[in-house]
């Protein structure tokens, strides 16, 4: 159980699956808003299991205890929400 997030990658027109474990959800939930753009640092990248795969990207961004996410207010890239 946890929170699933999708990270659009503007450089390759792809989406990367992200996962926040239930034990860390309360720490990150207040900074995650639908449609917001966040910068994420200090995360783990893993191969996404085919059982849980929700994107074409083979990788998964996994939030770990040192993960930091900050909302990007200025100079945020434009993301086509229809993609």
From TrEMBL:
The protein's name in its UniProt record: DUF223 domain-containing protein
Organism: Brassica oleracea var. oleracea
């Amino acid at each position: 159980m946890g929170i699933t997030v999708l990270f659009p990658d503007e450089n390759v027109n792809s989406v990367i699956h992200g996962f926040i474990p239930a034990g860390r959800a309360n720490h990150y939930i207040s900074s995650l808003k639908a449609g917001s753009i966040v910068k994420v640092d200090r995360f783990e990248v893993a191969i996404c299991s085919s059982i849980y795969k929700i994107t074409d990207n083979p990788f998964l961004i996994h939030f770990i205890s040192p993960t930091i996410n900050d909302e990007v207010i200025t100079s945020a890239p434009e993301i086509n929400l229809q993609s």
